[in-house]
Amino acid sequence: MVKKCLFPAAGYGTRFLPATKATPKEMLPILTKPLIQYGVEEALGAGIKTMAIITGRGKRAIEDHFDISYELEHQIQNTGKEPLLAEIRALISQCTFSYTRQVEMKGLGHAILTGETLIGQEPFAVLLADDLCTNSEDNVLSQLIKIYNTYQCSVVAIEEIPFEETHKYGVISGKIIDGNDDIYRVSDMVEKPQPKDAPSTMAIIGRYILTPDIFDILKDTKPGKGGEIQITDALKKQAKKGKVIAYKFKGKRFDCGSVDGFVEATNYFYKQTHKEQK
Length: 278
Hints:
278 residues; 32% helix; alpha/beta; 9-stranded mixed sheet; single chain; Spore Coat Polysaccharide Biosynthesis Protein SpsA, Chain A
């Protein structure tokens, strides 16, 4: 069973400066809820109650958010504002949160490796909070866990992207398996290739189920693109053994690591909220 979810949240969020100079990008709100809370809610909706968060300097706001604020609760007690904390209270009561720091920013692969002490030797989910996903039925992590339960190997979520955007993503190549156009056995993957070098237009987004052997692979993985330790390079080693499945998830994704995607997500959730209120 997949019982733990790892949240790499140590990055600087430079695309949102100066807003992220003193505020973690994971705490930027879509309407009234920070990005990382959407992620934790997705993990809980997939049956995961243990949240492991990789933080860094200046990220204390994340820990404070998933903790009780006695002074604030006292101030709004018995007022109309008390229900506004109901969702975060529910998360705090249902989930366990643990934290460790990524001392140096050496890439996503290194961030995941930093989480080994929090995860141990068991399969686990990875969720990047700035990839905000929504679905009216099973959320994306729930979908990936179902795929993992069938194939018992690492699983990555993918979506079709325009060729001109391949340089922003890890891109896979693979073959359709079991007659399902949404499921691929990955044979290779390339980190942020130029369009002329991209093996496909199937890009990995910020949702993974990883098997624990990934930690030993990451320890032996040399810095790659941008001088960073890339999770794509580690997954490629698993893929060479037929141990990575790519799944074209059902749902809508917003790249909230970009200003355009952040604004698009804000507008979408604003419209959804007003629909529900009518």
